[in-house]
């Protein structure tokens, strides 16, 4: 089994190879600050800007969905040795208002790799644990026809 630093580097390397053509959030400045191989989780840090906050003062749900898709897909791929999957369900919820310039910790965890439908969650939190947004992501492994 990989140690946590090796696992963190695997998450970084997997994310780095995602095309911004398919994943807008590949261009969102973010840093993987920690990872845990045993719990199949990682913490990604970013700073929210004015353009990522909607009229209600919360993180825009479209931005949350895009970023959650990128990072939870990365985590699911890492947990399943790079196996390719497609989204079957992606749900997001804004929870609390936020100010521009706030540091956000995106805590992603693969909760079920299953045989065909892996699942992951992401929480968008402040450094003191306030939750700004939540996302759940279920994927389906592609079957390759021979």
UniProtKB/TrEMBL annotation:
Keyword Hydrolase: yes
SUPFAM superfamilies given in the database record: Thioesterase/thiol ester dehydrase-isomerase (SSF54637)
An example Gene Ontology molecular-function term: fatty acyl-CoA hydrolase activity
Classification via Gene3D superfamilies: Hotdog Thioesterase (3.10.129.10)
Keywords carried by this UniProt record: Hydrolase
Origin superkingdom: Eukaryota
Coiled-coil spans in chain: none
Protein name, per record: Thioesterase domain-containing protein
Originating organism: Linderina pennispora
């Amino acid at each position: 089994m990989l140690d946590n630093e090796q696992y963190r580097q695997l998450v970084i390397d997997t994310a780095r190879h995602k095309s911004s053509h398919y994943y807008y959030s590949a261009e969102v400045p973010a840093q993987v600050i920690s990872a845990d191989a045993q719990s199949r989780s990682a913490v990604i840090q970013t700073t929210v800007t004015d353009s990522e906050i909607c009229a209600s003062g919360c993180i825009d749900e479209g931005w949350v969905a895009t970023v959650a898709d990128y990072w939870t897909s990365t985590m699911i791929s890492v947990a399943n040795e790079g196996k390719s999957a497609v989204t079957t369900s992606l749900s997001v919820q804004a929870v609390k208002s936020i100010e521009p310039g706030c540091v956000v910790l995106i805590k992603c965890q693969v909760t079920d790799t299953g045989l065909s439908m892996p699942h992951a969650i992401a929480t968008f939190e402040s450094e003191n644990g306030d939750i700004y947004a939540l996302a759940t992501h279920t994927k389906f492994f592609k079957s390759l026809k021979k």
